[in-house]
Amino acid sequence: xxxxxxxxxxxxxxxxxxxxxxxxxxxxxxxxxxxxxxxxxxxxxxxxxxxxxxxxxxxxxxxxxxxxxxxxxxxxxxxxxxxxxxxxxxxxxxxxxxxxxxxxxxxxxxxxxxxxxxxxxxxxxxxxxxxxxxxxxxxxxxxxxxxxxxxxxxxxxxxxxxxxxxxxxxxxxxxxxxxxxxxxxxxxxxxxxxxxxxxxxxxxxxxxxxxxxxxxxxxxxxxxxxxxxxxxxxxxxxxxxxxxxxxxxxxxxxxxxxxxxxxxxxxxxxxxxxxxxxxxxxxxxxxxxxxxxxxxxxxxxxxxxxxxxxxxxxxxxxxxxxxxxxxxxxxxxxxxxxxxxxxxxxxxxxxxxxxxxxxxxxxxxxxxxxxxxxxxxxxxxxxxxxxxxxxxxxxxxxxxxxxxxxxxxxxxxxxxxxxxxxxxxxxxxxxxxxxxxxxxxxxxxxxxxxxxxxxxxxxxxxxxxxxxx
Length: 469
Ligand SMILES: Nc1nc2c(c(=O)[nH]1)N[C@H]1C(S)=C(S)[C@@H](COP(=O)(O)OP(=O)(O)OC[C@H]3O[C@@H](n4cnc5c(N)ncnc54)[C@H](O)[C@@H]3O)O[C@H]1N2
Ligand code: MOO
Prior knowledge:
This protein is an alpha/beta fold. The chain folds into 3 domains: about 5-25 and about 185-370, Molybdenum Cofactor Biosythetic Enzyme, Chain A (3-Layer(aba) Sandwich), CATH 3.40.980; about 50-145, Molybdopterin biosynthesis moea protein, domain 3 (Molybdopterin biosynthesis moeA protein, domain 3), CATH 2.170.190.11; about 385-465, Beta-clip (Beta Barrel), CATH 2.40.340.10. It has helices at about 10-20, 165-175, 210-220, 235-260, 295-300, 340-355, 365-370, 375-380, 440, and strands at about 5, 25-30, 40, 50-55, 55-60, 70-80, 95-100, 110-115, 130-135, 145, 155, 180, 185-190, 195, 210, 225-235, 280-285, 305-315, 315, 320-325, 330-335, 390, 395, 400-410, 425-430, 445-450, 455, 460-465. The chain has a 7-stranded mixed beta sheet, sandwiched between helices. Strands 19, 22, 24, 25, 26 and 28 form a 6-stranded mixed beta sheet that branches. A hairpin with a 2-residue loop joins strand 20 (about 320-325) and strand 21. Bound molecules: ligand LQZAQKY5 and molybdate ion. Ligand LQZAQKY5 binds next to helix 3 and helix 6.
């Protein structure tokens, strides 16, 4: 029996209900790249923290220079380089040699760039200041004022934001030492199927190489998780049971090893006691076959299994799905067909990993929205804007199921009737090749999501696209 038929949205909700955001751990700012900020981060100090020169030149009081730009000679009273220490006050009627980034001397309100003075240019390494300088033009300020970029207390990153390289820089500049981020999730990936051999093994009759294992492990890493991979596992419930426990044990050993490396007292940190896996993803063995090992194991209801939920999801490909907990750890059982497995990863596993990482803020109404329409899947996954793109060719839908089509972006001819107004107007999508072809998926720029009520997609119709790159 295929179990209950349910919508993709309903299945997403059940997946998200199975996982919870991981614990918050401060991470040194320089190591926070790719993590998700767990609490709003505000600037500890203003940037720049003091008024500083924006040009190499002479700090002056602008009232000491004639408004009409007539050249004036001023004595050079000193020298300020960028570096520690406070600058001495500028005496009226004098200039101070100053370098970009150096603190403005109190009293000075402007910098005349060296190229607009009798000095012309500074010679690198020549430290002594000139006795006097002719300033040829009334200066613009050329001063970076305190807090002009960021003021102390400004919001730099909202909870739920992924840390980018530029954010690392902005946080460092404004005094963040440690960033509150959620722990990186650990995902166990296990492929099942008696026909599978690992990458590199010679193929015998009836055998194929396990591609789902490496593919889903790569997808989980790309989604921000660490991966423990086991398998391929033969179609034997006992072997699957051993693999599930084996993955948990291996992750625990790894976590203990890491904890020892950090400090003898650092506990293995996981919501479930003594388990170091946050999510199990299996592929294969969930449909109606006689050897469908995941279903067989779930049906046997061993004590390690709880909340088993076998479903037929109204999507194509990727219909047979199951959810459960194995020793309390959330388990997503995806179908074995590689394109179906990949589509299932994008629609179900990626949002689950996102929630573990805290990419969804607690109480965020996007969670609730998700149940309403497949279009809002964008906020859970990796589409930045949910703007639909026009189909550049016709293709058939899958009435009653959400059709997931690997598509490529193609330029649309100028003035094309298909092109909507706006900057994205010149891009459309076409199927990347046969729907079940992994090699076509590998060339796809995105996954088009065609709703269950669409029988046919015509050229020009707007299509929701989950971007893959
Ligand atoms: N009588 C029915 N048969 C099938 C149904 C159904 O409802 N009734 N559903 C079909 C659909 S849709 C799918 S999808 C598959 C999913 O079945 P399983 O999840 O049990 O997957 P398997 O049978 O294990 O494998 C399906 C297919 O994919 C290949 N595969 C599996 N794992 C891998 C891997 N790691 N790397 C590469 N290729 C893999 C496997 O060899 C099979 O060709 O069931 C349909 N049948
Ligand atoms: O649902 Mo299966 O994944 O169509 O190929």
